[in-house]
Predict the structure.
Amino acid sequence: MILIIIGASTLIGLIIAMFSVGVSDAINIPGFDIVDAANAANTPVWLVSMLSLFAIGIPFFFVFYLGLKILINNLKSIGNIAKFSLLGLWLLSIVGLIIFGVRQAAEHAFDASVTQKEQLYITPNDTLYIKMKADETYSKYDRFNNNRGNSKIVYTENDEKVIYSSDIRLIVRSTKDSLARIQIERISEGSSFQLAKERANNINYNYELVDNELQLDSYLTTDLKNKFRDQEIVIILYLPEGSTLYADENTYPFHSNRSNYNDILDHGMEAHYLEVQNDKLICYDCPKEDDDDDDDYKVLIDVNDENSSIRINDDGLEIISEDGSLKIDDDGVKGKSEDVKVNIDEDGIKIISDDN
């Protein structure tokens, strides 16, 4: 009974699912455009659905048939012709799915980028404000408060379908040049380098510098015919040393602090005035931590059966025994007993006994 239930329920679910997907693709039911956009190999969805039905359904048919054979002793066999026919159909379906899978993967085999460079008239004495901007048409798809990298199909003002993505990466670096500059890299994938570069060139992305405020689009768009090819925008902003940066809080999801990106804008620096100095950003309006004795690390240890104090802080390391017989700090090492005094510092080693 368990075999019959598993086999029958799986077959019914597969037939309903695959039939729905295949019919939806054939008659273009709204909402299934995302399936077509993800179909990089342009393989008919109905064909993939049918092959998937045979590849998964045939084994579960035999599970169902095995349950019937166990439950009904005199059940007639379906015959060798039917068995071998189903086996052949199953093998063909597996081979077909493998071929389609290889073609799908081949569409992402190459990646290419198109680079756009432009100088920004921001000098070492200027303050640059950065803000991510969303278009009113796509405002409901805005991802300021979510992770970057979301992609979907949306409609333009002219009711045309386009691919919308928030896969935008912001990188801030310093430069010794007298003017700032911006570099926009449009990145995409394809079955060849030429196709990948063509799709990268078809990515729509804009920015604008208005009164020392750099307004960066928080999204990219591309025509639906370009399909999902991991389209991405990388913004590299080079700021001259001595200039000041103020990044809006909505830039947080769009920049990364991985070491391989050499991004000097760390998370948590948003909404602060940051000065560019020596390949890093110095924050002058960030709250400073209070320096007090509570930050010191002090413990008691047993040395020669005597308690000693160890203090580690910004001044260095200090070890003092409670009876004053041993002291180690930046000045050196000082020790004494009833008969001998030892002093080790930059002048050398001095050992003095009571009898000199």
Notes: The longest helix spans residues 45-71. Helices lie at 2-27, 33-38, 45-71, 80-106, 193-201. Residues 291-305 have pLDDT under 50 and may be disordered. The two ends are 102 Å apart (CA to CA).
